[in-house]
């Protein structure tokens, strides 16, 4: 009888322990705000903590303020409530308030050592650190605690697309982009889960795929690249160095870029025609956001996330599409498919393609124009086959044929009442694919007009440089 009571006691104790662990784990999943008003007040306090100009604040985006960008319903942005002149600094975020690997190195050295031992990239290292601080370091007094709990728990970036939503990306470069991203992220998670995440530092929290996916997506969509602050001690040592090569090496190390999460600055939304930019001020060791042009009261202030991005990049990496983006990425596989198997220069042309894409070159088609990079490589690929214009026409027809729907079908869906009933990511994917097809058809017309205007088919006059 005593043995039965003892067993029963341990079972109850075990169940209680499991309940407490679950409660602790679930508490990290909840927003720390009981009402929407509390959340708004928190954002206002965040504004006061980091802004440099009193007229700048975080506000919700209304429908009339969306401009050309399709945002999620709960998106917020940075607004001004008075006129501010060009050149004004509106945000000054001290390095000590920035979530960086440099901070991790000094504040949580064991975690930093693990990142070094596992040789992860800066982006993955910052994501792991974010996940650790968010889910493992249960410190309500941390200056990052409320900021981390105000971060979105679900995003519209690529890793959050479900299988049905992914199917809507077929034909678009976004589909290939996402498939690669999923494979690489899964592979890294499995590697870390089998090694690094077994370290005792992660014993107090439940690390899983959903939390890792969240951290990677947050860093990918909200992280910014900036310079590191100058190490004054290192600068003093450098002055005493006699070898010029050593000095140059140390200087180059100091100028390298790093990715960080910058509270408040991560609320700035994107626009190609941004009114503001950011840079690192070494004198004050802070990131400054300053105005490139004067702004009026009530305006939303934008940063530019990158002029080289097409809609497929913005959707997968940031979770939005912009209607005035007029470019479409060209894939390695698409160009390779256009080289005939019996082409006498097949090996040389394939090598040129591989070298071009291995160096990070991004080939694009723009509405109304063709980039120099695409024209150059297309001339090589078209050599001893069809003329350049015929090759480009073939490329665009191939890209259009890869989409499962037509522009007309997309437009009919977007204008229908049922469009609002599908998921937000589905609407983003449909809108992006429609934009891409419009661009492709405009370029196709441009090329066809040039072919028609020619008195005879234009042949490539590229010399045999292969």
UniProtKB/TrEMBL annotation:
Give every SET domain span: 203-306
| Transmembrane domains' residue ranges | none
Q: Which UniProt keywords apply?
A: Methyltransferase, S-adenosyl-L-methionine, Signal, Transferase
| PROSITE patterns xrefs | SET (PS50280)
> MF terms per GO, please?
protein-lysine N-methyltransferase activity
A Pfam family matched by this chain, by name? SET
Give the signal peptide range: 1-23
Biological process (GO), any one: methylation
Name of this protein? SET domain-containing protein
Q: Can you name the source organism?
A: Cavenderia fasciculata
Q: What is the lineage of its organism?
A: Eukaryota, Amoebozoa, Evosea, Eumycetozoa, Dictyostelia
